[in-house]
Amino acid sequence: MTDMAKQDAFVAFERVQKSYDGETLVVKDLNLSMPKGEFLTMLGPSGSGKTTCLMMLAGFETATHGAIKLDGVSINDISPHKRGIGMVFQNYALFPHMTVAENLSFPLEVRKMGKSDREAKIKRALDMVQMGNFAGRRPTQLSGGQQQRIALARALVFEPELVLMDEPLGALDKQLRETLQFEITRLAHDLGITVVYVTHDQTEALTMSDRVAVFDDGRIQQLAPPDELYEKPQNSFVAQFIGENNALDGTVQEVRGNRCTVRLESGDVIDALPVNVSKPGDKTRVSIRPERVEFNPELGPDAHTLEAEVLEFVYMGDVFRTRLRVAGRDDFVVKTRNRADQVRLRPGEKVKIGWLPEDCRALDAT
Amino acid sequence: MSDATAGAAPGHKKASAAKAAEKPGPMVDAEGRPLKESLNRSLRLQKMRALMLIAPLLIFVLLTFIAPIADMLFRSVQNGIVSETLPRTTHRLADWDATTGDLPDEAVYEGLYYDLFIAAERKLHTRLGSRLNYEMTGMSSLFRQSGRSLDDIGDVYFDQFKDLDPNWDEAMPWAELLGDPEWIAEMQAWDEDSGETMPTFELADGISDLLPLTAETYSAFADYVQSEDGDSPLQEEPWVLVHTALYQDLMAKDVSGYNGPQAAMLKAADAAVGGFESVTFKDGMEGVDGDWLDHPTWETIQMYSPEFTNGYFLNAVDMQKTPDGPAMRDDDQRIYGLLFKRTMFMSLMITGSCILLGYPIAWLLSNVRVRTANLLLILVLLPFWTSLLVRTSAWKVMLQQQGVINDVLVWLGLIADDSRLVMINNQFGTIVAMTHILLPFMILPLYSVMQTIPPTYLRAAKSLGATNWTAFWRVYFPQSVPGIGAGSILVFILSIGYYITPEIVGGTTGTFISNRIAYHISSSLNWGLAAALGTILLALVLGLYYAYDKIVGIDNVKLG
Ligand SMILES: Nc1ncnc2c1ncn2[C@@H]1O[C@H](COP(=O)(O)OP(=O)(O)O)[C@@H](O)[C@H]1O
Ligand SMILES: [Mg+2]
Fold first, then answer.
1. Do B457 and A93 touch (CB under 8 A)?
2. How far apart are CA B340 and CA B333, in angstroms?
């Protein structure tokens, strides 16, 4: 991160650490800065510290070390209700004893807003999430998706510049989730708000975000736009966590510029792009996306190919998914598009496979 | 709107609509029976099974809870004792108009004499005296006294009959005159040691027509001798009451046609009674006790003649029956209204104190880690492990004038030694001790409700801009109201009927209505009044419960 970017940052975590029990660090040295208007997603397995980060930002947990800045000002000592950050909780946290309208009115009332202003804003917020007809209902009289819309409206009704969402769609079914994903991104974009979004669903992260921060073990493993995250994972964890991935373990044999050769445990040798390796003898795990593998490749004279045996062929409509035995492993997957000329392999058949060296990334051996 | 099923729905609807059009009328099941019927059948089976499961509890509750309450309700209006003990009197008194100021006529006194005599022999008159004493003081001694000197009236006739023929003071001639000859034979054949029961007395044929009063009283006598004493009427001289009855019968009836056993003796007596010295029953009763000529005595008896009475209830609300209908008692005799009000007031105070003290504790319990919460919960429940009596007595030690708190205050110099605070044997003492004792009943429901309120609500409120104060009052507190409701109902209902603690630390000003109920049950033995007070208390509780339901809604009560 350059100094320039740091000054521009709307939200910034600087060397933030967090421990609940004084023994283990739940968040380890977190550095993050985001400009105004960005939609940033924290993605990671459960227990990786995403919620903790969000809670520190919202002010419900205090950082053990480091500073959290909002618009250039440290908010460590500002109490939550003065931060003006909108928040959507996983279980919606709609007040059950208030109607939808009263729920939305709450943040406006505590801001001492006049009645007519309030009503106008509530109406606008409800219309925004297409729930205009539900003002008089109680939260328990709404479906999960409707409750989530109301929670969203409530977090937006007082027009915060920053909105935090902690797995807001986690409890909904797939179809509803997709509809709401779309709506949330649209709203965020239309309103120009900055969003920190937490999820453990990588599809959600990839489809919604400007940038994704992949969390594991209390650290950001990679912070990048979705395409870069998918195509250029910086380490094995990210490669494995985002999308489908073929991983092969081996040792670097030779590094030549932006090419290297890797000897796999089976003895086979392949071409790869050195990412986390620098010299021969480094242990590595290479990562190849299933759709970047080619059958019987024509790659040039000195390219390496591997022998593979087809174990399973699955017809999935738009793509074919072929599982192969490669270099002694049974879980190598290749995806091919359903084209008229695409061969359909049968279990038991033997094929050669290969890839462009830049599609095969030699990452750290975990 | 998310309409995941929208695509499939219309076609489906159309299909079922078409089906419905084909088959008008009620839905039927696979075997052609109406669907409702087979549904009901399967539900009935379920219901039966459920009923079987709860049957033991149901029976237990019926026996130990519903039945005593029903008995209590019944007892509070039941008043059979007057008409059972004085059947003739109450019957004849029914026509008497108390408002004229005249005493009842001779017939009533006659009935009274007969009733009272039999009751006195059976030792029932004192019970009745105690009963009527609740309504009018002096009744108890009147009845006890009358039972003792009632023989005076009968002795007048007894002596004259005896002088006429000593056989009138013998058991056997009386038995022969009035008893069925067969019965006498059986009686003579009966061996006391055989273990068989004595043949029951039977009147001779026709004697009831000839000597109705005599027959009636002798029957009562024989019955009493046989069943109460286990003696033979053949060996016991009858009560002087029977002589009185015989005198009246002979004066009224013609016995010349009689030729059964002892006809000669009877006819001789018949010839002589005309010249007997006699006494009216009214004069006789006056001789027994002058109070029998008091108008209020008769008013009371007449008022409490019916088998059911509202007297206990009137009494329980500081009213009394008068010939002009129910009226308030004199000011200095009103105690129950005050007691009810005090019970309500103090129960409310106790409930309020429990809320104030219990709420923060419950909050703490539900906001610390589970292990700490469990530990604290044990502390909350600790008082339950000590005897109620010990806890209450401990408060006595704490609060009395030479007690711990006063000592400390004096030692600190906050109060002078000669002006120690009075904190016990008054309302303060009762409220303090009972708040302590009932506190767990407030904390537990509060805690279990608070546990179910996720902390995210408070966080949500704060993230929306509410201060801690606003977040608590507008978001947390309303959600904890069901716990407050449940706790309050528990504490209030428990305290309204509490007895031991006010008894020990309440003195005279800090006692509850239940202490009065206990007094009537165990000391004054006025169970009817105790039952009426209990019934009113029950009605009050139900009324408050109903009011709570109307105002707060009983759905809003959560115990967990
Ligand atoms: N209030 C808390 N007290 C103690 N430990 C906590 C608390 N909240 C979270 N943790 C721990 O911190 C770690 C990270 O949790 P969290 O931030 O909730 O992860 P995520 O949201 O990514 O699933 C977990 O190991 C969790 O057990
Ligand atoms: Mg989480």
1. yes
2. 15
- The complex scores an ipTM of 0.85
Residues of chain B with C-beta less than 8 angstroms from the C-beta of A87: 459-460, 463-464
pLDDT of residue B559: 58
Residue B329 DSSP class:
P
Determine which residue's CA is closest to atom 2 belonging to ligand 1.
A20
Which residue, of A236, A271, A298, is where some domain finishes?
A236
The DSSP secondary structure of A279-294, one letter per residue, reads: STT-EEEEEE-GGG-E
Q: Is B479 on the interface with A (CB under 8 A)?
A: yes
In 10 A of CB A331, how many CB atoms?
Answer: 11
B237 within 8 A of B171, measured Cβ to Cβ: yes
A50 CA: nearest ligand 1 atom: 22
Residues A110 and A193 in one domain: yes
**Partner residue facing B464 (CB), from A60, A107, A164:** A107
Q: Does B456 touch chain A (CB under 8 A)?
A: yes
Last residue of a domain, one of A236, A267, A282: A236
The CATH number of the domain holding residue A229 is 3.40.50.300
What is chain A's mean pLDDT, rounded?
91
Q: Which residues are found with C-beta within 5 Å of the ion, ligand 2?
A: A 51
- Give the containing element (helix H, strand E) for B540: helix B527-551
Residue B6 has pLDDT above 50, yes or no: no
Q: Are A79 and A60 in contact (CB under 8 A)?
A: no
Contacts of residue A7, defined as CB under 8 A and 6 or more positions apart, other chains included, come to: A72
| Cα–Cα nearest to B116, from B297, B288, B291 | B288
Do residues A166 and A55 both lie within one domain?
A: yes
Q: What is the DSSP letter of B307?
A: S
CA distance B402 to B214: 72
A211-216 and A259-264 strand pairing? unpaired
Give helix B295-303 / helix B139-149 axis angle, nearest 10°. 100
Distance from the B357 Cα atom to the nearest Cα atom in chain A, whole angstroms: 25
Element (H, E) at A134: none
**Residue to substitute from B453, B462, B463, interface A, most A β-carbons within 10 A:** B463
For the CA of A46, the closest atom of ligand 1 is 23
Report which DSSP code applies to B419: G
Contact (CB<8Å) A145/B475: no
**Closest residue CA from atom 1 of ligand 1:** A20
Domain CATH code at residue A292: 2.40.50.140
A5-23 pLDDT, tens digit per residue, is 455 789 999 999 999 998 9
Q: What is the pLDDT of residues B160-183, one digit of tens each?
A: 999 998 989 888 999 988 999 999
* B332-341 contacts, C-beta under 8 A, 24 or more apart: B335/B516, B336/B513, B336/B516, B336/B533, B339/B511, B339/B512, B339/B513, B339/B516, B340/B513, B340/B536, B340/B537, B340/B540
- Identify the pLDDT of residue B558: 62
Q: How far apart are CA B493 and CA B317, in angstroms?
A: 20
B371: pLDDT strictly greater than 90: yes
Pocket of ligand 1 (CB under 6 A): A 20, 26, 44, 46-52
Per-residue pLDDT at B461? 95
CATH superfamily membership of B336-556 = MetI-like (1.10.3720.10)
The total number of structural domains that make up chain A: 2
Range of A58's domain?
Answer: 3-236
Shared-domain flag, residues A316 and A210: no
Predicted local confidence at residue A195, as pLDDT:
96
Q: How far is the CA of A215 from the centre of ligand 2 (A)?
A: 12
More confident residue, B324 or B534: B534
pLDDT computed for residue A322 by the predictor: 94
Pull the structure tokens for residue A74. 């440290």
Q: What is the pTM of this model?
A: 0.75
> What are the residues facing A362 on neighbouring strands?
A274, A286
**In the predicted structure, residue B10 carries a pLDDT above the cut 60:** no
pLDDT at B560: 52
State mean pLDDT over B117-132: 91
